[in-house]
Amino acid sequence: MAQMSMIMNLDKCIGCHTCSVTCKQVWTNRTGVEYAWFNNVETRPGIGYPREYENQEKWKGGWVRNKRGRLQLKAGGRLKKLSQIFNNPNLPQIDDYYEPWTYDYDMLTTAPAGTQSPVARPKSLLTGQDMDIKWSGNWDDNLGGSQETAAQDPILATMSEHVKMEFEETFMFYLPRICEHCLNPACVAACPSGAMYKREEDGIVLVDEDGCRGWRMCVSACPYKKVYFNHKTGKAEKCTLCYPLIEQGKPTICSETCVGRLRYLGLMLYDADAVLAAASIENDQDLLDAQRACFLDPFDPEVIAAAKAEGMADDWIEAAQNSPIYKLISEYEIALPLHPEYRTMPMVWYIPPLSPVVDVVSNSGSDGEDARTLFAAIDKLRIPVEYLAGLFSAGDVVPVELSLRKLAAMRAYMRDINLGNEPDERIPNAVGMTSETITAMYRLLAIAKYEDRYVIPKAHVETARELEELGCSLDTDGGPGMGGPGSAGHSGPYGNTVGMPLGATVDNYNTMTGRPSATAPTTPGRVNLLNWNGKGAPQGMFPPIADAGSPA
Amino acid sequence: MTAWDYLLWVAFPYAASGVFVVGHLLRFRYDQFGWTSRSSQTYENRLLRWGSPMFHYGILMVIGGHVVGLFIPKPWLEFFGVTEHMYHLGATWLGSFAAVLTVAGLAILIYRRRLTKRVLLVTTVMDKVMYVFLASTITFGTTATVLYQIFGGGYDYRGSISPWIRSLYSLQPDPSLMSDVPFFFQLHVLTATALFLLWPFTRLVHVFSAPLGYLVRPYVVYRSRDAPRGAGSRPPRRGWEKSERPLERSRK
Fold first, then answer.
1. How large a percentage of chain B has pLDDT more than 90?
2. Chain B residue with minimal CA distance to A220?
3. What transmembrane ranges does the database entry give (chain B) (predicted)?
4. pLDDT in tens, A302-349
């Protein structure tokens, strides 16, 4: 099956929260989900959002392998979950996220004249009362106040070495998080109503809002706490991977607006029948390799044949072959999953940040772009590496080190090229790569062209349905029905119609926008004067400007 | 028998059942989005942790007791060797235990709903009306049990109320059975009937979503994008359906 997945390159994240804000504007600026951030950016080390969500001894999210070697929800089996339906003992309170608030803006304009300036006081959105703001979704942003809170970071608690949260000796990076759209989603497994599901076509995990009965088991079962309870409608809501955009071949809003251009979107082909066995493997630290083994090589003729037999379209197979996700996970092996030990087989992966290492090297006066210095620092700087391993590989430092060494090698190798020095082939060879692969990886990571970052095939709908919703074929410009109801005017892809247009769906949006219109004539070179609004100079209407070569 | 007897013990129950059935069908057809338990657990959990399980497990036992008492005719139980005395003991003791759980749970829940500001603010008018009828039904039922079954001589409602309910279901209503029933039992029946009438318009609809299917379904659910219940495609408005061969339409 195919899975639409995301990878985030943490080295490039500047923690600007643009992704969070645009996501909020699009999806959660409604009452009941004021506190919910489908996309949030955490500063690590830090306790995250909601507070301490990674402490599964407290929240009982995700899966565990039981004594018989079978996979079971950490919160308990089916009967136990049903018996707890009247009160879910593992449900986070709204205060674990934060109490949503607004400000009394009205006061600023309506306050009577006085000696003091009027103040807009914070008011709780739950009670309407004045409130003290004591916590929010990113309260420990940039390690603010971390001397007091960072000790509660579940990853730090498991580390062997003591980490000082003092300004000079600490390290930090940002971790943007969305729903992981797991291959083995615990939220879906925990939903008593069966209202949550994984889409067969692209693996996006969604909530059927009509089927949800508000039992809230999904909220506690998700170890990433990325399912939110809308406290006004009583329904679960979560990141949809912006499926209406993905279906049109466009990136999610968080990816599109990412300032650092650090997000990658693409398909992964995987063997759905292998997922359960892989997630049930005994040792936590083997889960990363087990998940990698579930992925299929999109160039393998057998895989292609199997995909076609399953009904996958050619453009989807091609998209899987061009997928940046496949390159970063399987070819370069530098992307790692977030908390594989939760056994949900997450599908939003991360390229661990080299910057904590580079910062230490540079601050000590050494060359932060020299391969040998960096390699030595990766081996020596146990604290950041162990911390990253706690996030991305169930505590096993080897995969993190491999990934960081490749990033360091790329950095050093490309510096020589940029400076015009003789490129040193030994650098890529030291990390098992060649100069070609490391240059290709550099192009994907550093140049990061839009079309390389987002390889998203459009969703397929039956051809018949598309044709039915096209409207009258005579309504195109120049046709006999031109200008009549349904013709493509300038008001949108569905044109000006009398009454309701038929079936305006995301499925046919592309079909409709692709129709010939006045600005894109059916016969190139000819312009229909009846439709010309007098603005601009359509091609073919005026003779070419003399001396076209010179700038205007 | 007066007109009141017919009104209270025939017309009212039938009207309530009609509204109950049709109301649920219509609500399920047109308002699945509103069909939820509307939990307030995220606002407050300290009281809910005790009140909600107590009330729900209690009321489940109460419902079980009512099914046995009202719908299983006396001779059937006697056929299995359950004498009037055994039934009375069982019903009174088990019933009292369930009633204590239910009433205590409900008291906690109402206290919480009234005094927790966050919870009070999300309580709708319909919630309040529902609480009045739910609480009075439970209170009158408990009062009747305490008055007549524990401290009184014991009233055999299986000789009057139960046959009356069954007479409604067999469409041969006999209101005379209810005329001599003790006052608090009558009140209990009337408020319960009113509660059934309101039921489809309250959050009580969540009772019919008890997710028993969860015990047998596979853990991970897959759905196709093109499945009729899937997202992405809006059905055409009435009157704007495309013309299809009738054969295809019937296949849907």
1. 72
2. B42
3. 6-26, 47-72, 92-111, 131-151, 183-201
4. 999 999 999 999 999 999 999 999 999 999 999 999 999 999 999 999
Which residues of chain A neighbour B241 with C-beta distances below 8 Å? none
Tell whether B233 is covered by a domain. Answer: no
Q: If you measure CA to CA, which chain B residue comes closest to A244?
A: B232
The sign of the CA dihedral A140, A146, A150, A155 is positive
ipTM summary value:
0.86
Among the listed residues A393, A356, A362, the one whose alpha carbon sits nearest the alpha carbon of residue A378: A356
Angle at B237 between CA B231 and CA B238, to 5 degrees: 135
pLDDT one-digit tens code per residue, A82-94: 999 999 999 999 9
DSSP A199: E
Report which of A72, A86, A53 is spatially closest to residue A223, judged by C-alpha positions: A53
Question: How many CB atoms are located within 10 Å of the residue B171 CB?
Answer: 7
pLDDT score of B82: 85
Residue B25 lies in a domain: yes
**What whole-number distance in Å separates Cα of residue A38 and Cα of residue A248?**
21
* Pairwise CB contact (< 8 Å): B214 & A185: no
Q: The domain spanning residue B157 has which CATH number?
A: 1.20.950.20
- For residues A12 and A260, the answer to whether their CB atoms sit within 8 Å is yes
What CA–CA distance (Å, rounded) separates A232 from A221? 21
Please report, for chain A, the start and end positions of each structural domain, with discontinuous segments joined by +: 353-446, 485-552
Residue B200 near residue B24, CB atoms below 8 Å = yes
Residue B171 lies in a domain: yes
Taking CB atoms and an 8 Å cutoff, what residues of chain B touch A89? 49
- Please tell me the distance from the alpha carbon of residue A350 to that of residue A336, in angstroms, as a whole number: 5
Nearest to B36 among A235, A462, A507 (CB): A235
Distances (CA, A) of A305 to A200, A201, A455, B148: 18, 17, 21, 77
- Interchain proximity B211–A504, CB inside 8 Å: no
B223–A contact, CB cutoff 8 A: yes
Cα distances (angstroms) measured from residue A291 to each of A71, A174, A339, B152? 15, 25, 12, 69
Domain count, chain B: 1
Confidence band (pLDDT; 50, 70, 90) for A3? very high
Beta-carbon contacts of A294 under 8 Å, excluding residues fewer than 6 positions away, are A183, A270, A271, A274, A275, A278, A345
E-assigned strands of B37-191? none
CA distance A374 to A370: 6
Q: Quick: pLDDT tens for A176-189.
A: 999 999 999 999 99
- CATH number of the structural domain A353-446: 1.10.3650.10
Range of the domain at B28: 3-213
- Is residue B218 a part of any domain in this protein? no
Find the mean pLDDT for residues A478-494: 48
Contacts of A86 in chain B (CB under 8 A): 52-53, 55-57
